[in-house]
Write a structure and sequence with these properties.
The protein is α+β, with helices and mostly antiparallel strands. The chain has helices at 53-63, 82-90, 96-105, 110-117, 121-138; strands spanning 17-23, 44-50. It has one domain (8-138): Carbamoyl Phosphate Synthetase, Chain A, domain 4.
Length: 139
C-alpha cells in the first residue's frame, strides 16, 4: 500500500507504459536494403518500462544497441534530400522512426506524416514532443 488506504493494485501512482521494439540486424548485410516486408523476422527485441510512452520509447531505442541513445539525430536533418526523406517515410524500414523525427524537424505536419506512414497521429505527436523538448534543452 502506497497511500496506506488504497491497495497498490488500484494506486494510480504506479501506472507504467511498456514499449517493445523489434531488432533487425541489417548491419550484418550491408548490400541489403533495410526495407521490412510482411515476412520479416526480427532477431530479437527490446522492451522498456517507464512512466510515460515517451520515456519508454527513449529507453527502448537505447536498448536496441544500434548506436542510438534514444531518439537522437545520427544525421543532420537539414542535409537529408526531400526525396530520400519521403521514401524513408513511405517504406517500412528499421530506421523509419528516426526519419519521422527528421520530417518533424524539417517542419512537416503531423497529419501529413500520418497520411504518408499510416502511423497513428498520437505516436507522431509524441515523437514531436520529444524533438521539441530536445530543441528547448539545446537553447
Amino acid at each position: 500500500m502506497i497511500s496506506r488506504e488504497t491497495p497498490a493494485s488500484f494506486e494510480p501512482a504506479i501506472d507504467y507504459c511498456v514499449v517493445k521494439i523489434p531488432r533487425f540486424t541489417f548491419e550484418k548485410f550491408p548490400e541489403v536494403r533495410d526495407v521490412l516486408g510482411i515476412s520479416m523476422k526480427s532477431v530479437g527485441e527490446t522492451m522498456a518500462i517507464g512512466r510515460t510512452f515517451k520515456e519508454s520509447l527513449q529507453k527502448a531505442l537505447c536498448g536496441l544497441e544500434i548506436g542510438h541513445s534514444g531518439l537522437d539525430n545520427k544525421l543532420d536533418y537539414r542535409k537529408i534530400p526531400g526525396d530520400k526523406l519521403m521514401l524513408r517515410l513511405k517504406e517500412s524500414n528499421a530506421s523509419r522512426i528516426f526519419y519521422i523525427k527528421y520530417a518533424l524537424q524539417k517542419g512537416m505536419d503531423i497529419d501529413e506524416i500520418a497520411n504518408i506512414t499510416k502511423i497513428d497521429p498520437w505516436f507522431i505527436d509524441n515523437i514531436k514532443q520529444i524533438a521539441e523538448l530536445e530543441e528547448e534543452i539545446k537553447k
